[in-house]
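Problem: given the chain below (113 residues), write out its structure.
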Amino acid sequence: PGCPPHPDWMIGTIVHVLSDGIPALDSDLRPMQFFGKRIHDRCPLKRYDSDAHRIGEAGCMEDVGCRGKLTHGDCPVRGWNGIRNSCITSRGACIGCTSPSFAKDGAFYREGD
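Solution.
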């Protein structure tokens, strides 16, 4: 999972398999180390006392389409681009790319297309 998968997830899983065997997995067979918590649980935008009303504003982005409450991953703490960025840290909404139904649940796909 991931769009793209984070290199740390790949290398971390491979190293774990080689050194300690299969890691603890969630119900979708993803390593709990990386996918054990929801994006929302670690979201840096929760520190604001208000909800965002549009992309780019500070605050929880659930009302503008954030999928962080439904998506498991460590994106907000792991970051991409040298640990500097993720959907949320760039003040965008989580698009749910680590969700098993990503791209099939309305984000990029509509029935009949």
